[in-house]
Amino acid sequence: MAESTLSTATANAKKLSGKVAIVTGGASGIGEATVRLFADHGALMVVIADIQDELGQRVATSIGENKCRFVHCDVSKEDQVKSLVEWTVQNFGRLDIMFSNAGILGNSDQTVLDLDLSAFDHLFAVNVRGMAICVKYAARAMVRGNVRGSIVCTASVAASKGAKRRTAYNMSKHAVVGLVRSASVQLGAHGIRVNCVSPFGLATPMTLQAYKKSAEEIESMYEPSMSLKGVALKARNIADAVLFLACDDSELVTGHDLVVDGGYVNH
Fold first, then answer.
1. Which of 230, 253, 232, 229 is nearest to 241 (CA)?
2. Which ranges of the sequence are coiled-coil (predicted)?
3. What does pTM read for this prediction?
4. CA–CA separation, 56 vs 65, rounded Å?
5. In a 3-state reduction of DSSP, which class is residue 86?
6. What is the pLDDT of residues 68-94, one digit of tens each?
């Protein structure tokens, strides 16, 4: 069982008491860290949505079925996301939080000159189409339930600047920020907040697989680009930012891109 992400100092601060949340891509990495943090902060139920069935079920079981459930969901498939949201509302009465986190890296070496459009389409199906679908159905459920909910999407520091490679990935994360800004304007009338969190590079199962490196090597690779020294970005740091955007601490924050990068963007 993974160690609890809730520190002793905040053990009694249940910021999500009674809330129902969905976390896509919740079986590992940033998603898993956020699922555990949401559960620690008193969420009534956290639903893990992922295509990694064994990992997702393992995380849910380790937390306990009274607080966490796993549902297989490919976010690029509209019918699956629709069913996920409907199942959550039918079983737990409401949806308060959607953390639309599922995403892929794609081919990291592509430039505009050698862009593989089939790979481009697949990446956009997950990173952009999937995000839009999750925002759409979460917002519909919140409006129907008269819930002043919070929707958080995972963007990236890639949305803050251009890149020498990873063209499709860079474009997809710019699109996520555009989605968040537009959705926040449109859904504000319903009391629904929409924000995104933009991490810098960190060691997750996805990045470890992409770079074929150890966690220590990944952290050493990214550290020189951060102005904040003596620290390494961890999944729990991103989960902390998501918790802030999901809970009432940020009740007047919407349309915001919260960058968690150790100073990379301004370095």
1. 253
2. none
3. 0.93
4. 12
5. helix
6. 999 999 999 999 999 999 999 999 999
